[in-house]
Amino acid sequence: MLSVASLLGSLLSRSSGGPTAKIGSFQWVHTSYNKPGLLLEMVQSVIPPITFISHKGLAGRIAVIGGSKEYTGAPYFAAISALKVGADLSHVFCTEGASTVIKSYSPELIVHPILESKFAVHETSEWLERMHAVVLGPGLGRDPVVCLDTAKNILEEVKKKNLPLVVDADGLFLVTEYPDLIKSYGKAILTPNIVEFGRLYEKMMGEKPKPEEPVLAVKVLSRALGNVTIVKKGPNDIISDGENVLVCCSEGSPRRCGGQGDLLSGAMGTFSYWAHQAIERGTDNALLSLYGPNLCAAYAACLLTKECNKQAYSQKRRSTTTSDMIDCIQSSFEALFE
């Protein structure tokens, strides 16, 4: 069995390049460069093979909770990304005003216009029995009934069913308002950008995070939330469960169009299901055993999103949009993982 030190040494010897932004004073942190080495092998170990004997649903049924009158693109981006990464079915639970628009974007998505119904929590809970992972937040909006009441109760149902959960966008607004909702839930991954991270950190710690020590800040916040996995998005995506840290610093692009975080969260939903399944089946991958399914899924989605961004930008430059990135999921997945 490889020791942690030998794993770190082996990874570093198989990597090249360096971080694209400051990660602080931490020396022994697993990072990805142009050649992610052992981390890449960890991700590859959880990806299910495509076979003729599998049936619809085995590769994942993902639920996206979000979509409102104002925001229809975000849940679409998350749900279609989950599907294109490799899930078999992708469901969107949204408001009635968003449903027709989301359906018009793609016939592949299953859309449930129920978030404003007085039976929304019960109806969604029944569907959750069939889901393998949940992405909560893309396009949810901040309506006090839908976001702060219905979504709050749906999140409780997700926890009761012990489903892998990715919380992004307005879902993070909900968690910042009610941090105990997510505290100590071991299958949750939060994906804040720098602004969302700052708000949640200040809510929990009573002070702003120190910009010169971003890795430490992520670890501290994770521990304050009961070791919930956090992905602080940025030039380097910092991932921590309060004990272990991964940093995805692979090349992306300088383009910052809206919707990239939705691609990330949808992809992460699929990877999260796969990683938890791999752990349940039993794994002989040393890093997966060390870091666990959440860090593996988060790292995989961050790496894929950056590769999509890089490939799309190489073709479209300043005109790059998230739709262009989604078109690159297949080629990016193959370049990285196959």
TrEMBL record:
The signal peptide, as residue positions, is 1-17
Q: Where does (6S)-NADPHX bind?
A: G139, N193, I194, V195, E196, F197, G198, R199, D262
Q: Which parts of the sequence belong to the YjeF C-terminal domain?
A: 39-336
**Entry keyword Transferase:** no
One GO molecular function term of this record is: ATP-dependent NAD(P)H-hydrate dehydratase activity
Q: Which residues bind ATP?
A: 233-237, 252-261
Q: Domain of life here?
A: Eukaryota
Catalysis: reaction(s):
(6S)-NADHX + ATP = ADP + phosphate + NADH + H(+); (6S)-NADPHX + ATP = ADP + phosphate + NADPH + H(+)
- The answer to whether the entry has keyword Lyase is yes
Tell me, what is an example of a GO biological process annotation in this record?
metabolite repair
Identify the cofactor(s): Mg(2+)
- Tell me which UniProt keywords the record has, alphabetically: ATP-binding, Lyase, NAD, NADP, Nucleotide-binding, Phosphoprotein, Signal
Q: What class of enzyme is it?
A: lyase
Look up the EC number in the record and give it.
4.2.1.93
Function summary: Catalyzes the dehydration of the S-form of NAD(P)HX at the expense of ATP, which is converted to ADP. Together with NAD(P)HX epimerase, which catalyzes the epimerization of the S- and R-forms, the enzyme allows the repair of both epimers of NAD(P)HX, a damaged form of NAD(P)H that is a result of enzymatic or heat-dependent hydration.
Q: Which NCBIfam families match?
A: yjeF_cterm
The record's listing under PANTHER family reads: ATP-DEPENDENT (S)-NAD(P)H-HYDRATE DEHYDRATASE, ATP-DEPENDENT (S)-NAD(P)H-HYDRATE DEHYDRATASE FAMILY MEMBER
Q: Please give the family membership noted in the entry.
A: Belongs to the NnrD/CARKD family.
According to UniProt, the name of this protein is: ATP-dependent (S)-NAD(P)H-hydrate dehydratase
